[in-house]
Amino acid sequence: MEKMWAGRFNKSLNRLADDFNSSIHFDSRMYRQDITGSMAHAAMLSAKGIISKEDCSAIIDGLESILADIDNGVLLFDSEAEDIHMFVESELTKRIGDVGKKLHTARSRNDQVALDIRLYLRDEAKKITSLIKALLSAVAEQALKHRDAIMPGYTHLQRAQPVTFAHHLMAYAMMFIRDISRIEVAVKRMNVSPLGACALAGTTYDTDRNMTASALDFSGITLNSMDSVSDRDFCVELLSAFSILMMHLSRFSEEIILWSSWEFKFIELDDGYTTGSSIMPQKKNPDMAELVRGKTGRVYGDLMALLTILKGLPLAYNKDMQEDKESVFDAVDTVKQCLSVFAPMIATMTVCEDNMLKAAKDGFINATDLADYLVRKGIPFRTAYKCVGEIVGYCINNGFVLENLSFEKYKEFNSLFEEDLFDCISLQNCVNRRISEGGTGPESVKKQIEYVLEFLNDKKSFY
For 460, which of 99, 277, 395, 455 could close a Cys bridge (C-beta 3.0–4.6 Å)? Predict the structure, then answer.
């Protein structure tokens, strides 16, 4: 295939160099965006009298036929083509003749690829947002089903205070809502059209960049032609949002892995989202959660690769920037894959409420409530704290928990104890009395779940 840039050169590109230079094997996935952008460009050229209406009609008809044939599998990508832009233009010229060569008037591959990747990421971001919402829905559903299930809350991976499983899940729900917000903000900032910036300096043709921007549903145009073709901030920003999302998924995965172990047994994952061992028949491994945890590093790597590619580039376009796509595409694919398996894994898991409650009873996680009991009797908190610490130490050394230590023994530690202390340290009461906004109390958790459901129904925006 003759190169579109032939004319300046006296001999063909070396075969190895040609393969090294080519990007058709990965940028072909942007064919729809490339063709859509070309249609808008052709319509603008016609509206401005730069090409005739007849030529515009032929070009758009030809592009539509190419799009349909690729979609239907009739037209395969030519590995000899340098990139998706050259493939489409070459195929168009084959179909409609020299008229097809007019399409690239007042346009460069530099602004063309900048356009394509914005369109592509805008489309993919919508899909990823929908997948996050599916996960949010699964989390909210499990929270509704287990609103009253008491479990230990942890700090330093040590049992700390009683919470409900629903409250724990809602913490992840808030993370995922922030993830959606970050992606939406990144897309909003990305949603300006670079088309018409050409190679770097604009064009001598009387074009209408706002027309193509409007046709492609952009909110406006980029304001500096050099920045238009050299900017990949939007890729970095979106990959940053994806990395934070993956960090949240990885943290959730870590807890799922712990919870599904025999040591915890707080949950059991559905057989459809676990694997077995080749040698140990008793094993049921949380491989999907482990893979999500592992793939998080992969997305981090994509972000770091892109930042490293861009860090030393002078203005404007440089061929190094071709390397942005594989990192971006890999991150998009990985995030979509992880979310696609994560949501149904959460939706189908079995929650072992009895085991959660048993763990909550064994870790002195009501000790703070006992200290607060003494504070309400008029004792300074630090004094109460020390007293309860001594009681816990006694219980540990003598095989008791706070609930089954005798009232008489409590009186030995402090005369202000009354028999109502046992109501105070009841785990259910400990949870119910957490009345502060955002806490684990029933009304607070109910509001949190309602907020998530309203967010999913577009009745609430991110706070």
Answer: 455
